[in-house]
Amino acid sequence: MDTTVLERFLKYIKVDTMSKPEQESVPSTGIQKDLAKILEQELRTMGAVDVKMDDHGYVYGTIPATTDKKVLSLGFVAHMDTSPAYSGKDVKAQIIRNYDGGVIVMNRETGLSMGPEQYPELSNYKGQDLITTDGTTLLGADDKAGIAEIMALAQYLLEHPEIPHGAVKVGFTPDEEVGRGADFFDIPGFGADVAYTVDGGALGELEYENFNAASAKVTVHGLSIHPGSSKGKMKNAILMAMEFQSMLPVFDNPMYTQDYEGFFHLDHITGCVETAVMDYIIRDHDMEKFLAKKASMERVAAYLNQKYGDGTIELAMKDSYFNMKEKILDHMYLIDLAKEAMASLGIEPVVVPIRGGTDGAALSHRGLPCPNLCTGGHNFHGKFEYIPVQAMEKTTELLLAIVKKFADFSQE
């Protein structure tokens, strides 16, 4: 596989595409369309057909089938936005050639560094070439690595029409990081029978289970009055917000959970005596436990309203996405073929539950079965994000191997 996957990745991460959760429009930030326009033009230039970018910034394209035999139409999807958790503007990437397995000094001015003592998985990449930033931004491998890998695949297939395959559909979405990436995805227009998101972590990861997810906004209405004359009058919204948080299960917290364990995550809090606002995310793989977590928040809100007066606690919850597992179980050949493709390349499949979600979860529930594949990256959403060049190249080979497996599978 040629090295254009690296060139593409370094180009794409230069484009700031951070999304914003508080915006209702899609895309939530207009800058995401800057990358969408680039991808649209690149697809046209390389010879893809049915290329378009819609008003919401979604980009679609097709690599035409090269066989007359009936073959499933296969899609690959990645998202263009980067997480609002950390800046993605003015990314200064650096390539650590032939990594020696020790501490990486990311920024000599600030002394920022990372090493295998902090991130043991770095030891797996001794001798490889690692891409990091200078620590002032995230890298953007989530999910510009997935975009680069899909685009490299598209170019390779279009340059090698002798490879028999069915129609390959590519789709790039905005706003995945804020839970709206699949909201306006045109599944009929996309035209794929099944698809994969390319939005995972380390090489070999393969995922078809994810959290059920909801967001919750807790608005606490207090009453401010001079503290010198406040007895029996003041209602401190900050303290009542703290009381709300203290009534949630202490160990149902991301810092104490792993694998299939769910949580309440207090993601943001602002406030004063008069008003306080807390933003939560609620997660659980098990639907029954997920519903129980939402019910717990309702009980806490009801109790505090009874204690401090109706309207003191205003709770607004909204479901974000659901576990794709129930939609994938009837299409487990997607997992089996991906495993076979990995085995053919000497990649060890690692089937793990996603402790988060992808566009694939929402797409699966909308009728397009769509498990998730690795990109090769690590430490997403923060300054210690990195990705091995060799992992991106291998992932691109994996996508090609899956396309070939599908051609053989569909002809059986």
Describe the protein in words.
- The protein has 412 residues and is of the alpha+beta class.
- Helix content is 30%, strand content 21%.
- It contains ten helices and 17 strands.
- The strands form four sheets. It has an eight-stranded mixed sheet, with helices on one face. A four-stranded antiparallel sheet has the order 12-13-11-14.
- The radius of gyration is 23 Å and the shape is globular.
Brief synopsis:
Helix content is 30%, strand content 21%. It is of the alpha+beta class and 412 residues long.
Using brief descriptors, characterize the structure shown.
alpha+beta; 8-stranded mixed β-sheet; 4-stranded antiparallel β-sheet; 17 strands; 412 residues
Layout of strands and helices, then pairs:
Elements: H1 4-12, H2 32-46, E1 49-53, E2 59-63, E3 74-79, E4 94-96, E5 104-107, E6 112-114, E7 130-132, H3 141-159, E8 168-173, H4 187-190, E9 194-198, E10 205-207, E11 212-221, H5 237-246, E12 263-271, E13 275-284, H6 287-308, E14 313-321, H7 325-328, H8 333-344, E15 350-351, H9 359-365, E16 372-373, E17 387-388, H10 389-410
Parallel strand pairs: 3-8, 3-9, 9-16, 10-15
Antiparallel strand pairs: 1-2, 2-8, 4-7, 5-6, 7-17, 10-16, 11-13, 11-14, 12-13
Helix pairs in contact: 1-3, 3-10, 8-10
